[in-house]
Amino acid sequence: MIGYVECECIIYDAQSLKEKRSVLQSVISRLKHYNLAVSELDSQDLWQHTVIGIVTTASSKTACERELQRAVSLIDSRPDIELTRATYEWL
């Protein structure tokens, strides 16, 4: 089973692309500790908006869902980034 979640986020305090990338690098490096594939998918040229794609594989949908939910919870718990939408897909 392959699980995918696309997270749209806003970084309100970012006043430049450098500040945005600093926040994103911190989020992405923490997510990679969960053994997930993570990448910024869209809005690379916007200061305060980003779309992050997260992918994992497991033997069951339940296991995939648990890992992806943990990743979404990590993003949601951070004060410097606001998760506005999470869209899940299963393959």
Automatic annotation (TrEMBL):
InterPro entries: DUF503, TT1725-like_sf. Pfam families: DUF503. This is Uncharacterized protein. It comes from Guptibacillus hwajinpoensis. The lineage of its organism: Bacteria, Bacillati, Bacillota, Bacilli, Bacillales.
